[in-house]
Amino acid sequence: MNSAVFFGLSTMAYIFAMILYITYLAFRKQEVGILATTITIAGFISQTSAIFLRWGEFADLSGMGILKSAPLTNLYESLVFFVWCLILGYLIIEFKFKNRSFGAFVTPIASLMLAFIDLTGVSKEIQPLVPALKSNWLLAHVTMSFFAYATFALSCSTGLMYLILTSKKRNEGSYFFWTITFGISFVVLVAMGIDLLAFKVAVKPDVFIQSYLFKASFLNPSTTIKIISWVMAFTTGILIWRYGLLLNSIVRKFNVTVEMLDEITYKSIAIGFPVFTLGGLIFGAIWADQAWGVYWSWDPKETWSLITWFIYAFYLHGRLLKGWRGKKIAIVAVVGFVAVMFTYLGVNLLLSGLHAYGSG
Amino acid sequence: MEHEKKTIVDKIWDLCVSIKFAIVLFVLISVTSIVGTVLEQKGEPSDNIQILSKLFGESLAPHLYAVSEKLGFTDMYHSWWFTAFLMLFSLNLVLCSLDRLPKIWRLIKEPMKPMNVEQLRKLSIQREITIKGKPDTLKNEIKGFLKLMHLNCAETVGDNGYQFYSQKGRYSRLGVYITHLSILIILVGAIIGVRFGFKGYLNLPEGETSSMVFKSEEQEFPLGFDIRCETFQVDFYGNSDMPQEYRSWLTILKDGKEVLKKSITVNDPLTFNGITFYQSSYGMIPNGLERGVFLFNVASAQSEKTVLNLRYGDTFQIPNTSITGKIINFSPAFKMDEHGHTSTYANQMNNPAVLIDFSEDGKYKFSGWILKRYPGTWILPEGQRVEFNDYWGVEFTGLQVRKDPGRWVVYIGFFLIAIGLFIAFFTSHRKIWVTLVEEKNNTRVIVGATANKNKSVFERKIDKMISFLSKKQEGGK
Ligand code: HEM
Asked: Nearest Cα to A219, choosing from A194, A237, A236, A238?
């Protein structure tokens, strides 16, 4: 059996678990909940084995010894590791807080990310490493960064749930914030889905993401399609704003208190922040120092990590201020994860499209 | 007194020591940095105008560029205002910490005092339970529990019972200050590096020695010693063109004497006299064919190998035969298509090959390409071998050169911030008071406790103790 089989199994398990968690949320049948947890754990075990198998395959291929061959060297492997951390974090919360409701939130993220990998055709090949990537610091850097990203993802979802639960008036700032965040994520996902259909299925290019992102909608050469896309996007936004309170009643079914959400948000960040500082910023700097002799060069990826760090510093300090607890600080937690996403994907996909060096 | 008017100085001080100001600075630094990641820093104006026109349209771009240039956004991390942000940030950090440190220090140093029951009931963690038996019988048990939690307790005897109290992790409150201090240390280290260090580069051909490096195209920097590149080599993954490792063998010479020899690779630099050389690139020396030396091992079918060092155009003889060879062509990246057409596909030593004309007794026999990567090409039709080992002296190694006296300061900062964050987030200052009050033949156990972090963990431990005590009571019934 090779790693691909186990990766496939775990993807299917997470998708199946997602359906079960949502069913559980709707009907509150204990057995369904237990089955959902069991399948998530099975998926997690399978994914863990897959990661270790791939590790071995990589070590064989590169002949570099186990330590330097951790499968964390490209977009595909890092996405897989991110999902792994996310599921691990979720399972811990499920056991600690004895609450399964978050499963309906987290398993869709996991499934979506794994599906995203399959659909976009991100390269799954085991690629040999270029010399600069052969460093133990890099391994620690990547592992810890993704661990931190996963904790930030959790804090983002609990932060959003907090906002959904506490914002009940349509003219409130926090209500605007979460509906707009939701709206934009939704529209971006749909636009990417359309890109997939339009280019992956119809045109079948070799490289997908960089060159075709939003070309089927917002960046289409045809002005008509552009206008239609924007109109649709705004309509979606307004619909979500108008009917957002429906989501409020759904989240209320989760059986979670706002205090609990606030606590999980803080706890996740309180774990993620030091790990990110050490692994993301410091180990990254040490690695760069060894490879190129500069620990900090203000390149876009580094700068965005720093911005992310400042936003979470904002979160931690904001909690110490009177009048900032609650909704305001939950917004900061959500914005923090937007910065994480941008650091991780946006810098490569969007900024590099602007800059000349990105074509390489 | 509270309504006394604050002077301007007071107000400025209050601003400088406030966390609010820190947050404002976080936001300012972040938002301006975003602009810095969109515009290319120190880039060509045309590149940045192109970026701006992609974002805002052709017509606006030149104007926006002019504005950004004026404001310093095209080299913003060196602009006066970004430096000012960082200075305000440091000032805020210093003053804010100094402002609060005395209070925190008092909290740390303050000895614990016994508390009465009313006071205990106001603490953030509190539990009460009634247990059979006199306080005396419970005394040692409670002490034992506190020991289990690594709390060494003091004891007082009150009017109607005992009180035990204890604290742990007082210094955990300093974690935040260590964190803040280390951010300053890192900044100081960075300033030292910029002020007293330099960055340069050196493209050093194989076999050559240099006593200086380049800070920029025109500006040289004397090293104070000599550095020689003995040889340079790239290894590839299998027969692919994907480099697996590049390595330079370097020698440091002082007053003509060798003092240090080391081979460096990416991620494994060489440091001498505070100056570090990093492997960063490599390439072919332009028009370097004449200065290069071919390293061959040649042998006839029976004889031993002979080592030959040859130059482009040289003729050599295979020992014990009358066969001679003349090097007539070289390709660093040789390619032959299915029709036998040859070409060079890269200007790097990906697949070095030499073309040799072979003659016997002065008469032309045949010509053949011999490839370094493919030992199959080393064997001539009659069994003689011409092993192509290297073409030395035609490549240069690209070195990044850096002197950074602030680097160790930065690393100390890194180390401290790791410790500081660990203390700040994963340890806590815990205090507990346990009062035993006699009630007829029973004892009322009143627990009050506080923790500045991770309260729920401490609560759970206390609950364990309580539940154990109550179980014991059931058992005793
Ligand atoms: C990016 C730089 C900074 C980082 C990474 C940082 C980090 C931290 C951390 C981790 C905490 C503990 C938070 C918690 O317990 O939840 C903290 C607390 C604090 N920070 Fe910062 N900080 C930074 C900058 C500043 C600045 C510039 C100030 C100056 C005003 C400041 C003032 C404080 C104060 C007063 C506390 C609260 C201490 C307490 O009451 O527990 N911080 N900081």
From this structure: A194
